[in-house]
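Attaching the record inline, Q. Sequence:
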Amino acid sequence: MNELERSAWIELALTPYIGAETFLRLIKHFGSAQNVLETPFNEIKPLVRAQVQPYWRQDIAKEATKAALQWEQSHDDAKLLLLADEDFPGMLTEGLTPPPLLFIRGNTQCLQQPALAIVGSRHATPQALRIASEFATELAQKGVVIVSGMADGIDTAAHQGALKGSGSTIAVWGTGIDRVYPARNKELAQQISHHGCLISEFPLGTRPLAGNFPRRNRLIAALSQGTLVVEAAVESGSLITARLAGEMGREVMAIPGSIDNPLSKGCHLLIKQGAKLVENLTDIEQECTLLLQKNQMQAYNQQPTVEKFHNSDKNLHYHGEETLTETEDASKVLNKTEQIVLTGLGYGVMHPDTLVTALGIPAADVYANLITLELAGWITALPGGCYQRIKS
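Structure, as predicted:
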């Protein structure tokens, strides 16, 4: 593709109300982006929405194209990736109409590697954040690219876990690639650009509008062989990602949680609808058979995974080979009252007053033991004065 055609392609892609399907329809009909832009609107009109006319070959698309090309030239790791380019990710051409243009910062090679999406609540519990991070770390160590949306909560934990595992991670944005959202993830975005890539299909300067995020979720699902939902409410955007993944023929998986936790109900709904219940990496590997490379399988089979989901025995965990293994025994390091409080707390989110009623122990003793357990790292304090167990 020569420079004139490339510039025309970008301008057409950045013209308001020219979506992916309309773009491809025009290219197919007229043969090239240059031909499309040189055609009078009367001939274009039957193939586009009426809203396109005020913007056709106007300054807004030309200025957006100029800004995009300047952005690409001003950053060593920046790239405008066109659908016509050889290194455009093949996964985005399967199961959906691919975007004609992507803004990318980082290493585009990770777009060609096996990938898994990890998504979930922006207001996740500490236990869910730990699980998301640990899954991402282990998968990254085995060469799997972790894909997420860089939102607060599970998304951030997944990206951080992948980086901790010295692997690659892809962050798909619902804003222009020049606007970090949320702003507090600026440093994380920089780390991802060095150890993976940042992706957006939106023009530079695009603000975080609500309607952008379902489009972002569609790319998250499409880039991945499967989507793992760690924790999500029934009305969560993560369930949109899971639904899109299923519609594209990708695998859908979910982590179960406490029935008392409203942020687990979305995962439970997915499982009821046929999503794979995931407790460890073996569950993921069985569901996504091509995810782990053959040259990694020997090391994978020899090493048990870290714990991901607690079974009914508080002293045992499930591991990658579905064997039970002993962990730190609370009875050996905690006194009797601490053990009773810890067991009564379970793994859901609970207020101390509820625990007092359930155990019949004086409130002063319950509160004192909760503080002791928190300082020892067995539980964590949550907003609203509640607590949750984070270690078995």
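The radius of gyration is 24 Å. The longest helix spans residues 59-74.

More tomorrow.
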